Amino acid sequence: MSRDFVCPRCLERFALSAWQNSAGQRVAPPPRPTAWRRFTDPFRVPESPADGGSMEQRAALGDARRLTAVCPNGHRLPPDYLERPTVVVGLVGLTGASKSTYLTVLLDLLYAGALAPLDISVEMDEESADRFEVNYRQPLMVDKRQLPLTPLLLEEGQSPEPLTVVFRRSSRGAPERSINVVFFDASGEQLYRKEDLGRFGKFLYVASGIIVVLPPGIFPGLASAADPGESSIGLARPTQMLVNLADLLRSARGLKKDAYLADVSASVILSKADKLLSHPDFPADALRDPDLSPAALPRLFEEVRANSGRLVDFLEANGGSNLLTALLGRLPDPTVHAVSATGSEPTGGRYPSIAPRGVLEPLLVLLARHRFIPREGLELEQALAEWPRG
Ligand SMILES: Nc1nc2c(ncn2[C@@H]2O[C@H](COP(=O)(O)OP(=O)(O)O)[C@@H](O)[C@H]2O)c(=O)[nH]1
Ligand SMILES: [Mg+2]
Ligand SMILES: [Zn+2]
């Protein structure tokens, strides 16, 4: 059985959706408009009562508007969710890496129209928007407070509470395109601890986008940038986390351990990069927010590649060789990005201001890899050609 869809609430895969009426009862699926009808609908003049099929047909279509699709666990799917392709993006990193802080700042920027110069508009599904506002945006962006550490998933059946965003891109002369992007926190501990892998790794089984978040303080040469407890983590655990992640992504696709993960996108964030600006060897100009425009994208991606190479060199020089080898050898052509979600350190639990830098680039790479935006300049073909095949 092909399992085409993934629920944005419980991340369960399913093939056919069930439907539910406004009273919460399961009902038959509504009549699907034909492909032709969906294509021509935008050009139709509003229907007058005189045309457009029988009374029964119109009544059925009217009912359809009040029906919602639900997943096998009964979660209501956002409107038209099943009509769009879905990319599930897992944020992977040990506690304290900046996953929650990064995601909050990223979604806030998207919401504020940061991708408008690329003709991309972004909308959060209603259920996600409520949780996002209360748990993330209000505390961090408005109150400027440090976010509380996200609790680990401890029980069977718990969901990592994903946040779902719809991206729409209109380019002149072409039909609008849209995708669902479902972000979730795939906390690295549960990836690292063998006993948790089977239980919680299942969420990563459905992920086709990965954002790895690495704080500088775990690298031996960058211990001065460590937050409390960070330098004692060492690199063995994050390295094992990446090895397990790579194995899991392959086994989810029935691939051998050294196979290329062709349909997976991966970007790697060197987080809290504001702490590195005073470091003499840090390529400070890699922490940047370039101007966005469709015409400038290929150039931007070439710079992403170049900066990625410089950041890899920087981390290797600071004791990260083994980790970088695991990263570059096992994930599909990942790009490394310097990111500061907040722009500064919190003091007494508060940030003086939230001034993000470099937050959008890792996402742009994922959007390009999933062909939502052109990927010229990223040179994936080149990387594929160089991949050692076994
Ligand atoms: N200086 C600086 N500190 C950050 C940044 N992002 C996160 N932090 C610090 O790292 C802590 C943990 O971040 P959090 O997002 O909760 O990590 P998570 O466990 O990966 O979700 C925060 O409370 C901040 O103290 C950043 O961009 N700059
Ligand atoms: Mg967190
Ligand atoms: Zn569900």
Please tag this protein with its features.
binds magnesium ion, three-stranded antiparallel sheet, binds zinc ion, alpha/beta, binds guanosine-5'-diphosphate, 11 helices, globular, 2 domains, P-loop_NTPase, Rossmann fold, 12 strands, 390 residues
Describe this structure in words.
The chain has 390 residues and is α/β, with parallel strands linked by helices. The protein has two domains: 5-70, no CATH class; 84-386, P-loop containing nucleotide triphosphate hydrolases (Rossmann fold, 3-Layer(aba) Sandwich). Helix 3 (99-111) packs across helix 4 and helix 8 packs across helix 9. Strand 8 and strand 9 form a beta hairpin. Helices cover 33% and strands 14% of the residues. The strands form three sheets. Strands 7-8-9-6-10-11-12 form a seven-stranded mixed sheet. A three-stranded antiparallel sheet has the order 4-3-5, with no helix packed on it. Bound molecules: guanosine-5'-diphosphate, magnesium ion and zinc ion. Magnesium ion binds next to helix 3. InterPro entries: P-loop_NTPase.
What secondary-structure arrangement, pairings included, does this model have?
Blueprint: E1 5-6, E2 13-14, E3 18-20, E4 26-27, H1 35-40, H2 55-65, E5 68-70, E6 86-92, H3 99-111, E7 120-124, H4 126-142, E8 163-169, E9 177-185, H5 189-192, H6 194-200, H7 202-205, E10 209-214, H8 236-252, E11 265-270, H9 297-330, E12 335-338, H10 361-369, H11 380-386
Parallel strand pairs: 6-9, 6-10, 10-11, 11-12
Antiparallel strand pairs: 1-2, 3-4, 3-5, 7-8, 8-9
This protein binds guanosine-5'-diphosphate, magnesium ion and zinc ion.
Magnesium ion binds at residues 99-100, 149-150, 185.
